[in-house]
């Protein structure tokens, strides 16, 4: 998919105030510092699209961007921060769970995972929650350029093995780098295919 246009639409904390639109949308979510803003900028080929809504106080909001006048890219608040919570319910604001439960046009949540790190409970719990609520998701491994190729393969394999403790199969996943652009085509193509199925 070629990105012809991308624009910021609205930030808010209430699902009811999200754009009144039936366009397909894709949510991007992960621990803070996972590389979400960088990935969004890389995908949209904009230097600071994600940052336009990233000023202080705006980071805990649901941010909608309109891409190619065709679909919404949704930048959700980063979770995790310094506090480690026992349960996803404690760490997620209610509006995030409300977002996933109510936005029927949300076709896929992209859960971002730093490819350098071991599987973290908060991410595993979050994906568990998505699964329990039948919310479709993919994993996007970020910052692939920070690892040597062999270490990258080893880490992804280890992550997969961890996932297989809970899941019958490894969810669809992408390996990306905002630095090199690796994975950009694959993610955009995946979105394009889902968009086409949605329209039919
Ligand atoms: P966010 O908090 O999830 O939005 O994360 P940011 O996009 O702000 O990235 C956090 C830090 O990781 C920043 O210093 C980025 O420059 C760095 N970073 C993000 N993505 C990549 C990547 O693909 N490669 C490298 N080398 N650094 C990255």
Automatic annotation (TrEMBL):
Pfam families: MMR_HSR1. Keywords: Cell cycle, Cell division, GTP-binding, Magnesium, Metal-binding, Nucleotide-binding, Septation. Residues 22-197 form the EngB-type G domain. Its cofactor is Mg(2+). GO terms for biological process: division septum assembly. The keyword Cell division applies. One of its GO terms (molecular function) is GTP binding. InterPro entries: G_ENGB_dom, GTP-bd, GTP-bd_ribosome_bio_YsxC, P-loop_NTPase. It comes from the Bacteria. Necessary for normal cell division and for the maintenance of normal septation. Belongs to the TRAFAC class TrmE-Era-EngA-EngB-Septin-like GTPase superfamily. EngB GTPase family. This is Probable GTP-binding protein EngB. It comes from Gillisia limnaea (strain DSM 15749 / LMG 21470 / R-8282). The gene is engB.
